[in-house]
Amino acid sequence: MSVVSRRRLIGVFAVGACALAGVPATSGTSEAAKNGPTMDIQLLSFNDFHGNLEPPSGSSGKVVTGHALDASTPAKAVDVTTLVGGVEYLSTHLKEARQGHPNTLTVAAGDTSERRPCCRRPSTTSRPSRR
């Protein structure tokens, strides 16, 4: 058996063992009450914010929200846009989404601060590449 085949076989067994290890934890009956009280919750989630505190400039910060006819002759359809982005925009919309939902949880799934100057990693141009 070649080294590559052996590694592949070991990898398959490792994945299978990990999958089977979770079976006992997920099987069986729940210990929760059968007809216990329930609670409505709202989960708000965002990711890839990248520390963009300010809205993007130019067309990157615009979202098409509709269309209208231009008053020029001949009339032509134009996009109606709204400026979006930045922490103020995000905060405003999360606040609006929470209204009327007292049991709301807001989570960030990652990549929240990578572009902020205080959080940037040092340049990797002087380091040798890893392959």
Task: Report on the architecture of this protein.
With 131 residues, this protein is of the alpha+beta class. The protein has a domain at 38-119. It is built from 3 helices and 4 strands. It has helices at 3-21, 23-26, 86-98, and strands at 42-46, 62-69, 77-83, 104-108. Strand 2 (62-69) and strand 3 form a beta hairpin. The longest helix has 19 residues, at 3-21.
How would you summarize what this structure contains?
Helix content is 27%, strand content 19%.
Helix-strand layout with pairing:
Layout lengths: L2 H19 L1 H4 L15 E5 L15 E8 L7 E7 L2 H13 L5 E5 L23
Parallel strand pairs: 1-4
Antiparallel strand pairs: 2-3
The class by helix and strand makeup works out as: alpha+beta
In one word, what is the shape?
extended
Tell me the Rg in angstroms. Answer: 26 Å
Write down how many β-strands occur, each being a DSSP E stretch of 2 or more residues. 4
Total of DSSP H or I helical runs spanning 4+ residues: 3
Estimate the helix proportion, in percent: 25-40%
Features:
131 residues; two-stranded parallel ribbon; alpha+beta; 4 strands; 19% strand; extended; 3 helices
